[in-house]
Amino acid sequence: MNYTIKHDKATNIHYVTVSVKDHTVTFVDFGARIQEWIIPDKQGKKENILLSPDTPQEILTDTAQFGALVGPVAGRIKNGIWNHKQFEKNNGNHHLHGGSNGWWHQFWLFDVEVVEESITVHFMLKDTLTDYPGPIYVKNSYKVTSDSIEMTTSVHSDSHTIVNPTNHIYFNLNGQAKKDITNHMLQIHSDKYLETDHESIPTGKLLEVDNSGYDFRKPRLLSHALKELSHGLDDAFLLQGNQPQIILSEPSNGRNISISSDRQAVVIFSTTGFETNQSVSGKKMCSELGIAIETQELPDIVNHPNLGNIDLEKQQIKTWKTTYAFSVI
Ligand code: G6D
């Protein structure tokens, strides 16, 4: 069990690499990112299972939030308006992922805590750069155990504001993004998904997954599922209590990720048709090279209060936990 810290002078980015038993995780202070996660396959071959921007400069200029802690509010806010306040319209006519100065695009402070069986990297941010009422104080901790990353996010503010963070982690269990994700199996314990319009804005209606292409209650091969869903997946599923709620696997190499969360929902983004100039894990980003799994409260919930709320009252503390566990079967 050990950790190292590397500093890239040109970008001022710090890489914190933590090794515990059979896996190694690298975090980055710009965006409080899970940058790389190296796990074995059933032959014992250790490879990176995330989409990871290849250079510090690519992290600095990233616009797809690879592995980043997104906030104050992940997802879209229709027309960027909340409580008569106009947020930045950085996605057409709407506000997305906390805006261009969101938490994913800020340098966080960090420290490392070593205890007998685990190493935790704590990231801390006092957010004064987004135009949300605040400042918002956020602590995002990643506890690396023998077989998991336990992410705990805690927020408070001296003002009444809104917060709905997520980690925008993109998986590719083939390792080093050597193939696309259509050979993966996906299971989601969810009976309902959120209807959206042509601009990916929620209508506020929760639809039954039963008899639809959104039914992942039993494990499904993504090559089949993504053929049924012509635009791929960029959708929020209401999570049930039984944990783990989301299981992603690559049967031929035995890699399996189970995700357990106390969050209300998960957004699954299959990156179908998502082409950017970015190079990730040694490849140019292309359609279905990775799958993002983003636990959070339902998107655009400020416009659908019947579905819940993401208000953070003055001096209120909110804390959430999502655990990413790996196994080899
Ligand atoms: C696209 O609609 C998708 C988002 O869900 C995703 O987070 C982003 O690309 C990176 O806007």
Detail the topology: elements first, then pairings:
Layout: E1 2-8, E2 13-20, E3 23-28, E4 33-40, E5 46-48, H1 56-60, E6 69-70, E7 76-77, E8 81-82, E9 85-86, E10 95-96, E11 109-115, E12 118-127, E13 136-144, E14 148-157, E15 161-162, E16 166-167, E17 170-171, E18 185-188, E19 192-196, E20 202-208, E21 220-221, H2 222-228, E22 234-238, E23 246-250, E24 255-261, E25 265-269, E26 279-280, E27 283-284, E28 291-296, E29 311-312, E30 318-328
Antiparallel strand pairs: 1-2, 2-3, 3-4, 4-5, 6-16, 7-10, 8-9, 11-12, 12-13, 13-14, 14-30, 15-29, 17-28, 18-21, 18-23, 19-20, 19-22, 22-25, 23-24, 24-30, 25-28, 26-27
The structure holds alpha-D-quinovopyranose (G6D).
Alpha-D-quinovopyranose is lined by residues 64-65, 200, 234, 269.
Explain this structure to me?
- It is a single chain.
- It contains 2 helices and 30 strands.
- The protein has helices at residues 56-60, 222-228, and strands at residues 2-8, 13-20, 23-28, 33-40, 46-48, 69-70, 76-77, 81-82, 85-86, 95-96, 109-115, 118-127, 136-144, 148-157, 161-162, 166-167, 170-171, 185-188, 192-196, 202-208, 220-221, 234-238, 246-250, 255-261, 265-269, 279-280, 283-284, 291-296, 311-312, 318-328.
- The longest helix has 7 residues, at 222-228.
- The two termini are 24 Å apart.
- The mean pLDDT is 97.
- Bound molecules: alpha-D-quinovopyranose.
- Alpha-D-quinovopyranose binds next to loops.
